[in-house]
Amino acid sequence: MKKRTQRIIIFVSLITVITLFAFFLKDILVPYIRMEIHNDLDGAKELLVSKGVLGFMTVVLVEALQMVVIFIPAEFIQISSGMSYPFYIAILLCDVGICLGATIIYVLVRVFGFDNEQFDKKEQMIDRLTAAATAKKHRGTVLMLYFLFIMPFIPFGAICYYGSRRGLRYGRYLLTVATGVIPSIVTSNLMGAATKYFIGNALPLPLLILIIALLSVLLFVILFVFLDRFFLKENDGTPDSIVYAAFFRLVNLLRRKKQRLILDDTGLKGRKAPYLVLCNHESFFDFYYVRQFLRDVNPAFVVNRHYVSIPVVRTLARKSGFIPKRMFHKDIVTPVKILRTLRSGYPVVIFPEARLSVTGRSYPILDRGGAFYQKLGVDLVLIKINGAYFAKPKWRSRFYRSDIRVGVERVITAEEARAMTPAELDDLIAATLRYDDAVDPINTYRQTDLAEGLENLLYRCADCGALYATKGVKNELVCSACGAAHRLNGNYRFDGEPETIGAYYDRIKEWERKELDHLKLEAPVDAVYFSDTGRFRTKDSGVCTLTKDGFTYRSDGDQSFSVGFDVLEALPFSCAAEFETYRQNTLFYFYPKENPRQAARWALLADLLKEKYDAEKGL
To answer: How far is residue 498's CA from residue 517's CA, in Å, rounded to a whole number?
Structure first.
């Protein structure tokens, strides 16, 4: 069938769906709801009787034709029918409509060679899912269709196009469609029935929301157990698992309209897994940006162990093939898991900086892994993210809509890596991943609150050195001690000197370096401990101390300890909240009782003292 004819069919179907749905809303659903609100039950029944076959046909035709079009969600008519008709009738009408739509698609594909462009866009997703499900065990077409029908986010029409191309006899195909869609129809119609009850019987809105949420969760749990038990059991614990797919699908729904990703995967063309991905770390959602970039494979991510240590989350992370690692803590388990994952054929993603960028430029890579990367014997793909830092820096509470670029900076083959010394390889990786978003901005921000919250990072005046005297007011960082004001423009650069947030931060470093030799920083804190299993252990209070000799926590309870800079690599922090460190297998969060802004200072001073210690030891 010619493309022009195919497009006409889709266009006519689309117009018909819109027209019929508009009729259903205007002549049936809206009047029916009004009568329910006024408790006119007899009038509501008479309305449905008067529309009779016409109302039934509308539901059936809308359900059928939306499948041909594909991109119109079926939930609209399913929920509406659940609001308008008794539950059993609504289910029957929707199922008949789907069967009619499946029949139309079957005839279009098998008789006329119809090829829907919208299906072509979904086909890659379906191919990945079916490939994952059939990787280690043969599945019949019927079972595969059932698998697809209970997968969220795949339109029924796309599945029917897929099934029509697989050579099934019509009777078997239609029976599979008619039974495979029932879980989704039941859920949508129950949502419609609950909404009708809410409108007609003054059901509290929170209760309605709770009912719909519980129905959705119940359906998801049933589908998840079914998929995990019967289809993707072989992929448990790998990035091909259903848990992995569900997690990134959820993140995609939450993030895809917040930022515009500009992806350049030229450097990956023709490159097959396994390989090791090393990426800079600008923002919390860097894992999502990398996942969208590596869209043709399912990479495993090395993640902060604390994020996946809560029992339920730990189980889901294990099923997804995530590789947990304690920050700035050497261990044997993590390298072994990385090696096993690579040998299983999956790419592995590591963020060597291990911490989110503070100023929009690179953190030094403290855990230099050149020798380990050489032993892995795979290519190293160096990916750089630009534009993510200013979209949501550590010190700001909300996201700005931004363009974010992701691209391959360099590929170091396994042979090239082996030809270098570990130090040369580490230096090359650090130089390649080095960045400063303020030097080469790709976004212009029109907001009028660019500097608000910035004092929680730039806690000291760059001009007079006054502690905790800065304040972000609209687009200016103002010092209350000397009156200096530094205004940010739309590229997040200051109008005068220093020109960037990073340069301002460097000036704070110079002020702090003057005090290092005689530094004794103390702060009373509230502490929260987490064991290695991630379970909340206890709350405590005490005093933290930082000197050139190391970090000390004197607890009011029984958790006092000291650690020197031969072991302490850094004190990661959250702006105006806390700083943290591991002690053996326990993660400690310290919340300053006085002036939470000082959390940034503790982190910076720990970095400077570590730098001084390494220099004195020649490390």
So the answer is: 26
Distance CA 567, CA 550 (A): 9
- The answer on 180 and 89 residing in a single domain is yes
CA–CA distances in Å: residue 553 to residues 456, 525, 572, 578, 581: 23, 9, 16, 14, 11
Based on the domain organization, do 130 and 181 belong to the same domain?
yes
Same domain? For 255 and 386 the reply is yes
Q: Which of 40-49, 226-235, 397-406, 457-466 has the highest mean pLDDT?
A: 457-466
pTM for this predicted structure: 0.70
Separation of alpha carbons 490 and 445, rounded Å: 5
Largest CA distance in the chain: 91
Residue 231: pLDDT band with limits 50, 70, 90:
low
Please check whether residues 492 and 548 belong to one and the same domain: no
What DSSP string describes 414-471? HHHHHTS-HHHHHHHHHHHH--BTTTS-------S-TTTTGGGTS-B-TTT--BT-EE
Containing structural domain, residue 508? 454-513
CA distances from 93 to 58, 60, 96, 150, 182 (A): 9, 6, 5, 20, 12
Say if residues 88 and 125 touch (Cβ distance below 8 Å).
no
| Distance separating the N- and C-terminal Cα atoms of the chain | 71
Residues 544 and 481 in one domain: no
Read off the pLDDT of each residue in 390-401 and give the average, rounded to a whole number: 91
Whether 226 is in a domain gets the answer no
Q: Which two tokens stand for residue 321?
A: 């093939």
CA dihedral 567, 457, 362, 290 (to 10 degrees): 100
Phi, psi of 118 (to 5 degrees): -65, -35
pLDDT in tens, 171-184: 888 888 888 888 77
Q: What percent of the chain has pLDDT over 70?
A: 79
**CATH (domain of 575):** 2.30.29.30
Same structural domain for residues 311 and 370?
A: yes
User: What is the rounded average pLDDT of the residues 326-349?
Assistant: 89
Q: Do 387 and 490 fall into the same domain?
A: no
Let me know if residue 214 belongs to a domain.
Answer: no
In this structure, is residue 213 part of a structural domain? no
| 54 and 189 assigned to the same domain | yes
Q: Angle at the Cα of 546 (from 543 to 547), degrees rounded to 5? A: 135
pLDDT band for position 75 (cuts 50, 70, 90): low
Q: What is the pLDDT of residues 90-147, one digit of tens each?
A: 888 888 888 988 888 888 888 777 665 555 555 555 665 555 544 444 346 676 777 6
Domain count, the chain: 4
